[in-house]
Design a protein that fits this description.
- The protein is an alpha/beta fold.
- It folds into 2 domains: 212 residues, Rossmann fold (3-Layer(aba) Sandwich), CATH 3.40.50.1820; 54 residues, no CATH class.
- Helices cover 38% and strands 19% of the residues.
- It is built from 9 helices and 9 strands.
- Strands 1, 2, 3, 4, 5, 6, 7, 8 and 9 form a 9-stranded mixed beta sheet that branches.
- Helix 1 runs parallel beside helix 9, helix 4 runs antiparallel to helix 5 and helix 5 packs across helix 6.
- The longest helix has 16 residues.
- It starts with 7 loop residues before the first strand and ends with a helix.
Length: 281
């Protein structure tokens, strides 16, 4: 227990297939499951886990290939792993999914495949399965190529730094715009992903892009105005096509506002949970 009678369980282990998923759990009430971006792990949600755990049961876990999760090579479904997390931690009670980037893709696929498991969505700069491939402007193509060349040359430190420029600072911002603990944590999380570990093929093949209009749960879409232009456009599009969605643009932040602007993101999540589901569900 911590102050205020909030229950905390760190390093919870959830078995799914041949994987052992690492999770942290804070609080009681409506389950709120956090899905991390593809350049991070569950620690990107540390601030939001603490504040959300004051009003609900907040759950953050590492997917296969990330953080402290351990997985043998096998075909797997990221959506099935999420089902296992909700079954194990929340007894199958419908959850609010808070998801960033690649995590957003899994959240959208989840609500379409298993709608009974999801009662709300907070999507931060989300990916969408089946979305058309983007066409990047020259400045972004240059940085993406720089990452590729650094990885090929074995210069993983430079590759990591360039990814921080792209995803944390924003591709059109000066490198190092975001410093301090946020940058240190990004570099530490992404360093563990270079080179990526082999966990097997994800067999999820859903195309949420064509079915977004079917998602009727209350939804909040958040994006930063320093993010990739195509990601900002996609986020705005979701606010128009999801039947029960609101949008919120954050000024002065890029793809990972939970790190760059933790208090604002925590407040938005808290308002969403309280507004739609009531304190402690």
């Amino acid at each position: 227990m911590v102050g205020g009678g909030v229950t905390v369980s760190f390093n919870r282990r959830i078995v799914s297939g041949r994987a052992v998923l690492a999770a942290d759990i804070v609080g009681e009430g409506t389950p709120v499951v956090f899905l991390h971006a593809g350049v991070a792990d569950r620690r990107m949600w540390s601030a939001q886990l603490a504040t959300t755990g004051m009003r609900a049961k907040a759950i953050a876990y590492d997917r296969r290939g990330f953080g402290d999760t351990r997985a043998d090579v096998e075909e797997f479904s990221a959506v099935a792993d999420l089902v296992k997390v909700i079954d194990d931690v929340a007894g199958g009670v419908p959850a609010i999914l808070v998801a960033c980037s690649q995590g957003g893709r899994i959240a959208l696929d989840m609500v379409l495949k298993h709608p009974a498991y999801v009662c709300g969505l907070v999507l931060i700069a989300p990916s969408v399965s089946g979305w058309p491939e983007p066409v990047y402007p020259p400045e972004i193509r240059r940085l993406i190529e720089q990452v590729r060349k650094s990885e090929q040359a074995g210069d993983l430190k430079r590759a990591n730094a360039t990814k921080a420029h792209l995803w944390l600072d924003g591709p059109f911002q000066p490198e190092g715009r975001v410093g301090g603990e946020a940058r240190r944590l990004f570099l530490e999380m992404n360093d563990r992903l270079l080179p990526p570990s082999s966990v097997g093929a994800n067999v999820d093949v859903a195309s949420a892009y064509q079915r977004l209009g079917e998602i009727s749960v209350p939804s909040l879409v958040i994006w930063g105005n320093l993010d990739f232009p195509n990601i900002q456009d996609r986020s705005r599009y979701l606010t128009t096509v999801l039947p029960n969605a609101a949008g919120h643009e954050l000024s002065g932040t890029a793809h990972l506002p939970s790190l760059d602007r933790p208090a604002e993101v925590s407040a938005l999540i808290g308002e969403f949970v309280d507004g739609h589901f009531g304190r402690f569900g």
